[in-house]
Amino acid sequence: MTNELTLSKSKINTFIECPRKFKYRYIEEITEEANKYMLLGTEVHGIAEEIAGELIDGNKIEDVFLNLEYDEELEDHIKGLEKFFKDIYSNGYEIFSVEEYIVDEEINMNGIVDIAIKNKKNNELILFDYKTGKPRNISKYKLELCIYKILLESKYPNLNVVSAGIYFTSSAAYRIANFGYHGQDYFKLQSKEDIDDSDFDYVDTVVDNLYETIDRNYFKKEKGFLCRYCFYKDMCDGDFG
Question: Between 197-216 and 9-17, two packed helices, what is the crossing angle to 10 degrees?
Answer without folding.
Answer: 70
